[in-house]
Design a protein that fits this description.
This protein is α+β, with helices and mostly antiparallel strands. The chain contains twelve helices and ten strands. A hairpin with a 4-residue loop joins β4 and β5. The protein is elongated, with a radius of gyration of 26 Å. It starts with 8 loop residues before the first helix and ends with a helix.
């Protein structure tokens, strides 16, 4: 939530300078450093720092004359004051090189994404896989693998492709597979995977008449593949990075990692607004385990539809501008590539 007061331009500059200095060095920032940076006297800076402290935007550790930002101050900085840099070509090329081995496989691309986010942020990173109950069936394919077995594949609007191998107690023929192919694509294309229930599939099989006895195994494979498509997962990387953060005790880092394993709670925090990088700072996360942690989240899209999220979790003293730029580029890159892969399926 934004601070409900108007700050003068000088106060804004001082607040931004204190936060930038503290992010870089982890030490309380004194008035002399700020005075040299913005070109006013140390006495003026001290007065303004005192005012910012009264407003709850800065805090003064008991053992230091310098100031550190409060969580309220970080909120004001992220919402109004920080300047997000544009990644330069070298930085973009480095990220592209990290992602390159997974560019033509959606699962590998997301795995490389979360590993890249963890490596570049030196935080813990998470990415959700696309899918979910709202994903729609784009197509169903059948590939014969032996005389009595075949693979069924569901391609979804979320860019996923889930498969199941099924075995029949009769010899499969091209004519039989064509019947299954036509039936599945006529009845399933455009349907939400959450609608593919046992009752729906029973009625689908009954529509085959005397061929009903032949379709049991393909229908079971279809139900399992649809269930896989409806399920979304969270991939984590860089968990040990939290133990390297001086702001977190070993116990504190363990509590955060325990929380990140609770998928339902984590999913709720990742469900931020699409289209921009959003920040939850410390107590804003709503969980005591995360009171000293910030979460930066960017949503990604597949074929223009919101599909998932990539996130970094680290100490409140994180480099918000740099990490925002990285997450923005990662989400844009995987959105483009997953959309491309979905179009090729």
């Amino acid at each position: 939530m934004a601070v409900p007061m108007e700050l003068t331009l000088r106060k804004e500059k001082i607040l931004a300078s204190v936060i930038t200095g503290f992010i870089q060095n982890g030490e309380p920032v004194g008035s002399k450093v700020i005075a040299e940076e913005i070109g006013v006297s140390s006495a003026t800076v001290r007065n303004e720092m005192a005012s910012l402290t009264e407003l709850g935007l800065l805090e003064q550790p008991h053992t230091s004359a310098g100031r550190v930002p409060s969580q309220k101050g970080y909120r004001e900085y992220v919402d109004r004051l920080m300047q997000v840099p544009e990644l330069n070509p070298v930085q973009k090329q480095r990220i592209d090189a990290y992602l390159a081995p997974g560019m033509y496989d959606s699962e590998q691309l997301l795995l490389r994404t979360v590993q890249t986010a963890a490596a570049l942020s030196r935080c813990t990173a998470a990415v959700t896989t696309p899918g979910g109950p709202g994903a729609r069936v784009k197509a169903v394919q059948l590939v014969q693998t032996s005389r009595r077995t075949a693979m069924l594949l569901i391609m979804s609007s979320a860019g996923t492709m889930k498969s199941r191998v099924f075995r029949c107690d009769y010899n499969l023929t091209n004519d039989i597979l064509r019947v299954f192919f036509r039936l599945f694509n006529e009845r399933l294309t455009g349907k939400c995977v959450s609608e593919i229930t046992p009752a729906f599939l029973q009625s689908l099989g009954a529509s085959l008449g005397e061929m009903y006895s032949l379709i049991g195994a393909p229908l079971r494979a279809l139900l399992e593949a649809a269930s896989d498509t409806a399920h979304t997962d969270i991939l984590l990387a860089g968990q040990m990075n939290l133990f390297l953060c001086p702001e977190l005790s070993t116990t504190g880092a363990r509590r955060v990692l325990d929380f990140l394993e609770r998928r339902e709670e984590l999913f709720s925090l990742l469900n931020q607004k699409p289209g921009r990088v959003t920040a939850l700072i410390g107590r804003e996360c709503g969980w005591p385990e995360l009171e000293n942690i910030s979460l930066l989240t960017a949503r990604y899209r597949v074929e223009g539809q919101d599909a998932g999220a990539v996130m970094v979790a680290g100490p409140v003293r994180m480099d918000y501008p740099r990490l925002t730029a990285i997450l923005r580029y990662l989400s844009e890159t995987i959105s483009e590539q997953l959309t491309l892969l979905a179009g090729e399926e």
